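In this supplementary section we document a worked example of the pipeline. Step one takes a protein sequence of length 252 as its only input; no multiple sequence alignment statistics are reported here. Step two produces a three-dimensional model, which step three serialises into structure tokens for compact storage. The input and output of this example are shown verbatim.
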Amino acid sequence: MQRRLVPLLCTVVLAVGLPVAAQDFPSIGSQYMDFGASMMAVGQINNVLGATVPNGASSPRGGGAAAAGHSASRQALSVNTRYRASPAVTSRVKGQFADFVAKIDPANAPRLRQVVQQQDLLGVWERHVSVDGLRRGDVADAMAAYWVQNWQIANNVPFTDRTQVQAVRGQVYRALGSNPQFARLDDAGKQEMAEVFMLNFVAQGSAFSDATAKDDKRLSSRLSDAAVARFRNEMGVDLRRLRLTDQGFVRV
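The serialised model returned by step three reads:
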């Protein structure tokens, strides 16, 4: 099954009578730095993932690795990317994210805070990525969805399929398994990292989806360039020199 690029948050916002707030997320999506990037040392962990992406010439042929999918990646290394979620951690992360969006767009801060605090943005994330077999409660799933979506935005690719996303999930899992920082995280640390990825996913994806729906090519280009800059500046990875295959990302 194919997954459409990024969900429109407009439907969520309209449901609570806040039509302006959905239009404000472009100011979030165009930021070069993610919410929580420095706090979570996300860049350092993503650097490890970047090192696992092979060159196109040396990438494996055939579908063997992709066919193994989710279950094989879970057995590949003795790392637990799952976590037991705590409502207190979610409340703290949502509060920090509300502060982040309000600071970026102070003119619309009250509306943005209301959307972040009152709406189930993590549920929006899960409904969108479930078609690819991803779920809440797993850092690898949250990180894989974030990587794929930013690649889609950077390259203006509207569809991906489950096999490709699951292959990226396997790359993420192996990267986390080789990272000593991740190995030291407890459940709360894993949850915080995953939910930071999820909220960035929703904000950045909503911004791009809204711009595309309005056929605002100038804004779409700006958001696309912002995705490229985020990964280049934080991780040293050029999203426009990656190709998404049934074996995951390969460099071209």
